[in-house]
Structures are given as structure tokens and as C-alpha cells.
């Protein structure tokens, strides 16, 4: 495909994504939430549902018995309800499954448009991930958990915990070894989307259009999100003002956060040749690791594709680095992590006979130019990771309870110091 033809197709896709987003979000923006198919509530999985899932896996087997229990984790942090289901089959097999349904309190559901985000994730598993996984027959992309069943109200995945995977400790940030695994896997994931984008066919174009439209930061949702952003900004500015290390940047941070919504929308605007299909919400809570007998991480899986979008790979990179690592790791190992990402992406593209669209120097410039995105998103994500969220807390409670000296404040100050050293703190 010629450069002109490729650019024309991408511009067309971008326009279609905006149209799809406007139509879908306006149709599902009333904040309605659901607990899934009939019979699937907070503590119940029906035999009919388990049989339906098993028939998708092996139509010649049947259910002998099953157990279901609520998944772990803080329910105040998540927009889905998870149940751990263990199924014994007549053929003697045992299936370890996760049943996931959309769930959130009315205020959170309306603000984040939870049903639509869940629909995006089920679309990814049903129509996108299997394409990306099968691009390399001899070396499949393994960063996704296996999906057994997906519908707009129910997603059934393999239970990674049964295979020894777990979410790493996030209070102190991920170390170099964890980050290298993540960045290597991310490079391969982005390479798969680049290769799929290069496929000049209607199916690929339509699939990317559906999977990649912007789900959250649209003009129609500005009225819902900007008041929350303003409350978070006030809290952040108070923290910055109280820190002797960064108090001089108070007005700059205040100006940056005052235009957070517009800045994020601008960052999300895809530009070629860098644009890829993004995870969109890549941070430590959405990543599981497997460990060897020495306790070292040896494999990684990405979870929760509800906010996938199409844009610069640097957005996934900066979102991950600034929400899930420490300043020390970023300073000491940041460039090595970028090299690991680019090396794996280039290797994966060579395997598919797809030309690498940008150099390591290009990637470094892109990550540097979008570093402020790390602050804008980590300012929200870190509150969720580091705060104790009481039952019934509103989104406004989550973003306004931090005080100078708490763990969130320390991470925030470190990010501001780092961005200042990089020369990207501009109002």
C-alpha cells in the first residue's frame, strides 16, 4: 500500500471512530448499569450459564458440578463484578474460570459509561484479540488471558490465578524486571496491531474502527468529567503548594490541570505513522505476573481492555511508567525499557514481514513529547491505587481526600520533579 493510500485510509478511519463514538456514547450515556444475564447476580451463577459456556468450549462434554464465589479485590475500585467459577465436567476435566459482568454504582456508571466500556472489552475478546494472537502461528501472542465466552453482558475468561499468576505489589512501584516484561510484551502487542492495520481489507478496517474509537474523552462527556477533574486539580494544587520541593511549580501545575480534558483529547488524537491499537488503561492493577521458583517474574498478562483506543504507543508507555513505577526506576532504567519495547516490536514486525514505521530515536522523541500525559493520568490512577476507599465513597471522595505527605503525594511530587528535569512542565 502506498503512503498516500495508507494516510487516506487512516484519516477515514479516524473520522469513522469519531462518528461511532458519538453515536454509541449518546445511546448509552444514561448511566444504566446491569448485573448481567438473568440469574447472574452478585453471588449466583446458574447451571444453565455454566452449561452454555462449556458448550462453547467442548460441545461433546457436560457439567458434572461447579462452585462459584465472589472474586477478590476492592469492589470500590472496579467497574465489573468478578466471580471465580470452578467446573468439573463429565469427561473428568476441571475448568478454572472467571465470570465477569458490568457493575458500578449509579454515579460511577454514569460518569464512566460502564456498560459501553464493558461492551468494548467483550468486542476486543470476540473480534480483535484472536486476530492478533494468531498472526504468529509459531510464536503466538500470549499476553491475553484466554477467552471462552463473550457477550455485551458477560465475559468468561480463564482464571489466571489458578495458573499461578498474580497482581504485583503496587505501593512501592514495579521494579526493573517487572517493567522489562511489561514493555517487551507491550512492544509485541503494538506490533500486532500495526501488522493488522497494514492488512488492506475491509474486515480489518471495520474491526479497528469498532475497537479503536475513543470511549471516554469526547465532547458529549465533558460535562460529566470536568467537574471531577476540577475537584482533583484543587486537591493536587494544594499538595504541590505544600511541598518545598515543587511549590514553585504551583501556578504551572494549576494551569496544566485547568485544561486537563482538552490536553488529554489532544494527546488521544492519532497521528501516523506511530498510531497503534492501545490497551488504554495499562497500569499495575491491570497486569498479572507469573513467577519462577526463585520468585522472579517470568511471564505477564494484560487485563481489562475496556478503554482500548487508537493512538500513539507513547500513551500506553507513559501511562504505565508514571502510574506503576518509581522515579528511581524511570531515571535509572527508562531508556533501557524503551529499548526493550522497540527491540521486541521490531523483531515481531520482521517476523511478519512488516516494515518498522519508526526508529528508536522517533520513539524516544514521542515518549518525551507526551510525558505530560503521564502526569494527567497518574494524578487520577494513583489515588485509586494508594487510597483506602471506604464503602459508598463517591468519585469526588476518591479525588479529594489526599493530604501532603501521604503515599500519593510523594509519588505526585516525584513526577513533577521528573517532568521539570525533562523540561516539559509548560502551562
What does this structure look like?
The chain has one domain (3-34, 103-144, 170-422): Alpha-Beta Complex (Aminoglycoside 3'-phosphotransferase, Chain: A, domain 2). The radius of gyration is 21 Å and the shape is globular. It has 15 helices and 9 strands. The chain has helices spanning 3-27, 47-57, 106-112, 114-133, 176-198, 202-212, 222-241, 250-258, 260-268, 313-324, 327-351, 360-369, 371-386, 395-400, 407-422; strands at 63-70, 80-89, 94-102, 147-151, 154-158, 276-278, 287-291, 297-302, 309-311. It starts with a helix and ends in a 5-residue tail after the last helix.
Helicity range: 40-55%
What kind of sheet is the major sheet?
Answer: 5 strands, antiparallel
Spans of 5+ residues with little confidence (pLDDT < 50)? Answer: 1-43
The CATH architecture would be: Alpha-Beta Complex
Q: Could you name the CATH topology?
A: Aminoglycoside 3'-phosphotransferase, Chain: A, domain 2
The CA-CA distance between the termini, in Å, is 40 Å
Q: For the residues shown, what is the average pLDDT?
A: 85
Number of helices: 15
Quick summary:
The chain is 52% helix and 13% strand.
Task: Label this structure with key terms.
427 residues, 5-stranded antiparallel beta sheet, 15 helices, 52% helix, two-stranded antiparallel ribbon, alpha+beta, Aminoglycoside 3'-phosphotransferase, Chain: A, domain 2
Amino acid at each position: 500500500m502506498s503512503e498516500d493510500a495508507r494516510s487516506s485510509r487512516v484519516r477515514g478511519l479516524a473520522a469513522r471512530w469519531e462518528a461511532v463514538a458519538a453515536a454509541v456514547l449518546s445511546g448509552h450515556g444514561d448511566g444504566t448499569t446491569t448485573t448481567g444475564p438473568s440469574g447472574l447476580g452478585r453471588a449466583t451463577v446458574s447451571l444453565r450459564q455454566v452449561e452454555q459456556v462449556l458448550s462453547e468450549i467442548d460441545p461433546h462434554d457436560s457439567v458434572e458440578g461447579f462452585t462459584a464465589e465472589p472474586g477478590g479485590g476492592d469492589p470500590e475500585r472496579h467497574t465489573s463484578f468478578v466471580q471465580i467459577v470452578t467446573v468439573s465436567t463429565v469427561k473428568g476435566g476441571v475448568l478454572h474460570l472467571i465470570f465477569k459482568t458490568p457493575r458500578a454504582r449509579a454515579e460511577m456508571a454514569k460518569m464512566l459509561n460502564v456498560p459501553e466500556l464493558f461492551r468494548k472489552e467483550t468486542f476486543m475478546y470476540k473480534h480483535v484479540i484472536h486476530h492478533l494472537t494468531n498472526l504468529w502461528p509459531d510464536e503466538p501472542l500470549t499476553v491475553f488471558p484466554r477467552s471462552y465466552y463473550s457477550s455485551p453482558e458477560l465475559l468468561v475468561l480463564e482464571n489466571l490465578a489458578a495458573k499461578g499468576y498474580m497482581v504485583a505489589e503496587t505501593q512501592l512501584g514495579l521494579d526493573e524486571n517487572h517493567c522489562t516484561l511489561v514493555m517487551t510484551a507491550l512492544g509485541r502487542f503494538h506490533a500486532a496491531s500495526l501488522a493488522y492495520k497494514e492488512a488492506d481489507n475491509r474486515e480489518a478496517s471495520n474491526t479497528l474502527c469498532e475497537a479503536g474509537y475513543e470511549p471516554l474523552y469526547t465532547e458529549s462527556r465533558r460535562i460529566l468529567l470536568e467537574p471531577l477533574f476540577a475537584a482533583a486539580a484543587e486537591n493536587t494544587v494544594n499538595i504541590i503548594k505544600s511541598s518545598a520541593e515543587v511549590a514553585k511549580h504551583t501556578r504551572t501545575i494549576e494551569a496544566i490541570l485547568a485544561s486537563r480534558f482538552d490536553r488529554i483529547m489532544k494527546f488521544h488524537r492519532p497521528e501516523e505513522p506511530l498510531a497503534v491499537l492501545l490497551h488504554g488503561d495499562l497500569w499495575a492493577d491491570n497486569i498479572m505476573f507469573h513467577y519462577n521458583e526463585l520468585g522472579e517474574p517470568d511471564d505477564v498478562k494484560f487485563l481489562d481492555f475496556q478503554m482500548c483506543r487508537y493512538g500513539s504507543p507513547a500513551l500506553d508507555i507513559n501511562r504505565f511508567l508514571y502510574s506503576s513505577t518509581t522515579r528511581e526506576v524511570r531515571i535509572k532504567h527508562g531508556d533501557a525499557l524503551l529499548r526493550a519495547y522497540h527491540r521486541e516490536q521490531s523483531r515481531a514486525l520482521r517476523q511478519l514481514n512488516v516494515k518498522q514505521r519508526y526508529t528508536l530515536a522517533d520513539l524516544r522523541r514521542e515518549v518525551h513529547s507526551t510525558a505530560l500525559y503521564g502526569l494527567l493520568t497518574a494524578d487520577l490512577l494513583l489515588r485509586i491505587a494508594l487510597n483506602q476507599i471506604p464503602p459508598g465513597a463517591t468519585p469526588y471522595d476518591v479525588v479529594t481526600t489526599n493530604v501532603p505527605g501521604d503515599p500519593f503525594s510523594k509519588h505526585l511530587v516525584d513526577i513533577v520533579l521528573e517532568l521539570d528535569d525533562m523540561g516539559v512542565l509548560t502551562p
